[in-house]
Amino acid sequence: MEIAVLNIQGKETGKKVSLDDSVFGIEPSEHTVYLEVKQYLAAQRQGTHKAKERAEIAKSTRKIKKQKGTGTARAGSAKSPVFRGGGRVFGPRPRSYDFKLNKAQKRLAKKSVLSQKLKDNEIKVLEDFTFEAPKTKEFISVLKALGLDNKKALFVLGEANKNVYLSSRNLQKAKVVNSSELNVYDMINASEVVFLEGSLASIQDNLSK
Fold it and tell me: Were both Cys, which of 52, 83, 135, 141 would link to 56 (CB 3.0–4.6 Å)?
């Protein structure tokens, strides 16, 4: 399939790029996309939560009442979880929430989202551009020209471009990533995905394996 290449004024340049059907034209796998998003969000969790358990409470270890004759349950320590200020039973401990997902599944998830985005006309291809200096105003003018000023937009660059990245950094609804940083969560979270012309070759090469 071919798609027209636009310039930063939002007009067609007369050029077209060919999109690989094995990347942009597959039947989406919703479950694989779900697993990829789940893994991405799990990996973002710090996992630094911690509650003190019985052995970590700083209290006296004396026996707080006699064993028998009180008419109540026996109690050996004020650290017991049944008392106020005691330790917590099976409290949370620091751990990693990340889990493994096969490379083939991760590629399938990306291809599924790209195929669905193309089907929904939520993909644009823009000719490569840069700014002489970081200016948010210039990036906003690009968004307006593409009709994305009121939408969440994800721009995918072929290689790192500091000026373009810094120009977009203050905008809540716009995000700029390199082709190597492209992930399923960002694509789903964006109303439109804008690929710079130079990013398509590496993405298609990587996902068509």
Answer: 52
Contacts of 93 (CB under 8 A, 6+ apart): 49, 50
No. of helices (H) and no. of strands (E), the chain: 7, 6
What is d(CA 200, CA 209) in angstroms, rounded to the nearest whole number? 15
- Considering only CA atoms, which of 40, 36, 5 is closest in space to residue 111? 36
Instruction: List the structure tokens of 12.
Output: 């067609």
Could you give the CA distance from residue 159 to residue 169 in angstroms, rounded to a whole number? 17
Q: Is the pLDDT of residue 60 over 90?
A: no
Report residue 207 as tokens.
Answer: 């996902």
Q: Percentage of the chain with pLDDT > 90? A: 85
77: containing domain: 50-93
Rg (CA), the chain: 27
- Name beta bridge partners: 175: 154
In this prediction the pTM is 0.83
Interior CA angle at 28 toward 174 and 120, to 5°?
A: 50
